Each structure stands twice: as structure tokens, then as C-alpha cells.
Amino acid sequence: MSTSLDLEFWHSRYLEQAGWSEQVRARLLDRMGFRSGSVLEVGCGTGAVMTSIRTAHPDSPVFGIDLAFSSLLFHQQKTREGSQRLICADGYALPLPDRVFDLVYCHYLLLWVRRMEPLIGEMIRVLKPGGILAVFAEPDYQARIDFPPAAVERGKLQNESLIQQGARLDTGRRIGPLIIQAGLKEVIYGVMGGEWTGNQVSNLIERKVLEDDLNRLAAGAPPGNFATPEWMFIPTFYAAGKKSLEF
């Protein structure tokens, strides 16, 4: 089944996800020594992270690329940003010259990519020597924890739905080794912690995403009783490294 959720909702979701990784992004870029420079987000969607990066680094020109023209148009209408900084194109074939960006990053993108190596290769290609590649957040649904036991089955059904949608469940754990194998230097990678207040799944956005994923299953699946206190932890990994001066 197709999603019933509109771009306004998904933008709210992307803003929520951007909030989860905000402190990690700031700390990671500080440790990698990024202060200002040209920036590219691959898979920018509705621009939730781009806006945050631009606010944190106002002297840095920030560009975004995405396959979904509707998402780029949504971002442009929200921000009144000039179209010259938004590109509708495939990340596997970036329509950009070699060695032009100081920072290239993605956020909750590789989860949906079947062939990560060539995409990472393209991101590295457009980086300047010494530039930074950052994978700010990639979840690992294969290692998820759902509690209490009554919520475990629903977690399994959500994973099944994500697989049907094209997601790779173990993406998070793969990104650190992946960028090391790609030849980047000074690599840092790790996993974000979790903290909750009250019933996590009562969060309206989280609940709607879960319901939408379950509704996409061919046979459908009952959403369950969301009044029951419960939580889930999806380990979410980050990684960054620098392009060798010899590249």
C-alpha cells in the first residue's frame, strides 16, 4: 500500500530526526575540524538538515541534491531559497565536477540504498583533498530492541514492512567499516545513545510512522494498543572521515 502521509508530515519527521542527531553532528564536525567551506548534502529531502547546517555555519554555501523534485520544491517554498543550490539528480551520478566541496554528507539516506559503495565513491569524488565525508545518522533496525514483549511482534512487522519498501536493516553497523574501506583517513564512527520520557510510542509522529509502515504490509497489520507504556531503541550510527590529499 502507498503511504497516506503527505510531505508536510514527512518534513516534520525529518525535522524530528535532525533534532536527534544535532548534537552528534556538531561534535563530529568540530572533531573533524570543519569551520566553514562549501557543503553538499546527498539525499537532502525537504532540507531539514540543510537548514540546520546553514544556521550553524552561516558563511558556508550549502547545496542539496535529491531524486524527488517534490521534496526540493517543498524546501524551496519553505525557505525561499534560490534553485541554484538545489539539484534534482541521482546520487550515483552526481552532475558535479571532481574536488569541489569541503564537506559532503548524508543523513538517514544509506538505509534506502542497495549499493552503498558506488554512492560513497561518488560523494568522495566531489570532495576536495582533505575534505570531510560525514554519514550523520544511519539506523540499524536489525539490532532493534522493543519492550515490553507485546511490542516485539509489532517491531518484527515494521522491519518486514521496511524490507518490502527497500530498506537494508543492518545499514548502521556497516557505515564505519565502509568508509574505512573507501580509503578515508582519520575516521571516527560510533552509535548514538537513547533517552526517553514516558511512553515513547505515544509520540504522535513516531506512532504515525509505525502505523504507516504496518499499513504498507500486503496483508496489513493491527497497530495494537498504543496506550500501553512501551519504547523501542533503534541503534543509530554515525561516521566521518577525511579524503586523502593523494586522492
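The above is record 1. Record 2 follows with the same two-line structure.
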Amino acid sequence: MYKLFFQLVFTRMDPERAHYAAFRWIRLAARVPVLRTFVAAALAPRYRELRTEALGLRMHGPFGLAAGFDKNAVAIDGMSMLGFDHVEIGTVTGEPQPGNPKKRLFRLVADRALINRMGFNNEGSAAVAERLAARVPVFRTTVGVNIGKTKVVPEAEAAADYVKSTERLAAHADYLVVNVSSPNTPGLRNLQATESLRPLLSAVREAADRTVTGRRVPLLVKIAPDLADEDVDAVADLAVELGLDGIIATNTTIARDALGLNSSPSLTGETGGLSGAPLKERSLAVVSRLYARVGDRITLVGVGGIENAEDAWQRILAGATLVQGYSAFIYEGPSYARAIHKGLAARLAASPYATLADAVGAETRKAVK
């Protein structure tokens, strides 16, 4: 029914307008007790065998919603209602900003992909922190907070901007993500270079520890798929050196060549980050490379081209403890998370592994022996 509705309605709407329309429906459903209970029962069944411990946190399962869908923390319970085991909000910047001029979101239906150049449109860290502080959770879910650089802030002052967001948001985050990999903020990806990343991550870690007492907020960094392999290794080594809790691999790609895109050149030529199915192979390779480098010392989160349970399972076998989706949710609809959970449970039952944790990195360990 959703796919028919998508073809008849959503494909005729501007993608950003359709996003906000669907977003409103999800938020409204989550506010009606009877309706949200019914929806959660149908779309968010829990599987005991998928329970996951990661980042010092206990989660219903390994599958979460990637950052970018709920930028301002307004639909956490709605996304949990749809079955996501964790919800990563953001990207949130130090100051509010409108993002890039519209039109800035494009569907590549033939490729089951999206191109976006949203530009971190969000209400800013102060407003989001206030909303998170006032939130009364309906469902128990893990909330990650993804922070990025305000566009007008010079690159040299980026660390102070991230620290500002950290001081406001860390207390409300189950885990915190430093996003230095979006292609839509000028100069942001330059911060992935280890000489820039080291002081930035150290400043955010110090700010989180100073701001939050009584617990240690897990800190992760999100990297681009476009990094050269040696740069992936360098980030992995830096993460271990700094005692980082995790790496999210990967953000969107600026690549278009050699991806076998089937959509029209007028679409594939749009600037911005490409997400969805074409990203699958590279994102899987990055997770495998990271796991070969860091093993179980830090948590890896696999994102990029997770369309179904098999994709999620392959990412786990490569080394990801957690997996995330976004673009495929647009194409699969409300049953997206349910189908992945059901498929993961079936694959685990048919595998030689007693637990999901046993499966993490199993294929990569075989390959490096």
C-alpha cells in the first residue's frame, strides 16, 4: 500500500515537501495514545535475540535511524514507534541556520537513492537542547545527538562552535556524534584530516566531560566514504589514540562515476551528497577496513545503502555493532525497520553464531587471517 501511495502521491510532490508531510503524520500518530500503541505493536515487535549492548548502552536491537531525518528532535517517539532501536537526531549546529537555497533534495528513484544539499538546516543547539530537556519519553529508545559546524563560522573557529553545541546538548544525549563529513558545508570535510580532527575531538571530549557529571557520554565521529583508504586508517588510529567510543561509516558521497547510476543525468549531476543503494559497496568496504584496524576496541556503526536485512547482516559480519538507515526508509515506508528486524532474527537463527555480538566482524576476521 505504501509503495502504491509513494508512486501515486509522493513522486508527484517536491521531495522536501513530501518529507515534511510524512514527518507531520508520524508526529501526529505518536501523539495519539491508542494509535501509537497500535502502530508500535504492528511495526516495532521486539526480538530478544537482537538485544544489543553498545557504547555502554542497552538497546532493543542494532538498527537505528541515521541523522538527517529528524534534525530538530521533534519526532523521537514517532520514529521509535516505527521500530527504530535508536534515533540519531541532527545534524545540529551551534547557531540556527536555514540551510542552502531550495531546491535541495532530489530523489533518484531508478537508483533507490537521494541527493541532498540541505546544508544543516536546523533550529540551532540552544533550541534543540531546550526541546530535549522538556521531552517526556513515551517509548524507551536510545537518542544520539549529531553535531556539526555552523556555516558562517570560519574553519579556524570550528572547535569552539562544536564545543558550544556540546555544552548545550551533551547532557541530553545517550551518545554524541561529531559530524565532519557532510559535503554541504564549505570546508567541513577538511576537518577529517587528523591534524585538524585531533584537537577538535579532544575539545569536544573535554567539554562533554566538563558539562556532564555522573556518567561519561560516548563520543563518535562520522566519516565520509570518499576518504582514501590510508585516511580511513589514520582516522581509525586516531580514534583509538583518543579513546573515542565509535566511528560511524559512512556519510553521503560526492562521487558519481563508477556507481552505475540509472537516473537521468539532470538528476545525477545535481551537487550534494548521494545516499542510498549506490553507496552500499563502499560503505561496507569502509566498515570492514575499520574493523580490521581497530577490532573490538571501539564500536563501529554501519550506514549507507542499508536497504534490507541482508544488507544489515553483511554490515554486522563486516564489523558493525550497530547499523542505521535513512534513504531506504523513504522507499520502503513504515514497515522498513520491522522487515530488517525480522530478517536479522532469521539470519542469526540460521547462522553458526550464538548471539548477534558473536557475528560482529566474523567475515572480516576470516579475511585477515
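The mean pLDDT is 95.
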